[in-house]
Amino acid sequence: MFTGLIEGTGTLLRTERHGPDARMVISPDFQLDRPVLGESIAVDGACLTVIDFDPASFGADVSAETLARTTLGRKVSGNKLNLERALKIGDRLGGHLVTGHIDGIAVLKERKPVGRSLRLSFEMAPEMIRFVIEKGSIAVNGISLTVNGVSNTGFEVNIVPHTASMTTLADLRIGAEVNIETDLIGKYVHRLVHPQEEENGAGKGIDLDLLRRHGFA
Q1: What is the DSSP letter of 95?
Q2: Which domains does the chain have, with CATH numbers?
Q3: Most exposed: 1, 151, 157, 182, by fewest CB within 10 Å?
Q4: Residue 21: is it exposed, middle or buried by C-beta count within 10 angstroms (0-12/13-18/19+)?
Q5: Alpha-carbon distance 20 to 65, whole Å?
């Protein structure tokens, strides 16, 4: 579990392909204190497992599923990546609950300065937009952001100077693809309210009639 508060960036040294899978070797641009074999690190928002490390870098396996769902398979040596180690019990939850399980990809459609901040507008698939609400939370390349606006095709976020300096967001150009994780709580609520219909028609989910029958409305 992560918070979406990026600790720093890292540089992709190389990607080693192994059939449908891959191994990425990344050099953090900050001091990664006491890494542990098997620990989780969010790389541009995708939860990866550390399989080896040395004083200057760490390696992580990337499954075929992660390569298909994220932008990691398109990264090349020299690319910058956002890094966050897993949340520890007792840490401040300054962002929001982020799992590191990417829902899909969004595309940057517009960027413009607003005062000292940067306004970014993204477009993404309707099946992900349904989990996005204005003033809700969303993780873009692993960064916890507040949604400032939402439409049927996309959403807008505001990047303050500190976030721009600590992450790769300020470097994004029109057409850039980013990893998106929508709000965890919103997905569970949607699942409860709109369960997948069974073949026998059972499972209406939560509706006004159900709430009335149980004294909630």
Answers
A1: S
A2: 8-85 (2.40.30.20), 104-191 (2.40.30.20)
A3: 151
A4: middle
A5: 9
